[in-house]
Predict the structure.
Amino acid sequence: DETAWFQCQGEAPKIITSQDAIRMAMEKSREILDSHATSREKLFQINRNIITMLNERSKGQEYEWPLRLEAMMIKEKGQWVVHYLHFSYPCNNILEGKTDAAVLVE
């Protein structure tokens, strides 16, 4: 009655050249190197970034990028209000960024 949840999935065309993919991976690696993370965390993040780029490049220059949108809404004073909204892409990756908050233990 007062709570609704939905999830939808779809695909969007993505076009990226090898040169652009490498440029973006280099820019992200520079951001990671300039961060306040430990050396070990930086290495982990850069490695993950490069693996993600190589995975996407293996699909070719043009491919369909899977997307997912999930939301929870609650009715407040007769109006539906979004209380939770999650947009993820590509949604076919197992980790989907869930390790970003993980702490590496020596």
In short: Strands lie at 3-15, 62-76, 79-88. The chain has two helices and three strands. The mean pLDDT is 84. The longest helix spans residues 39-57.
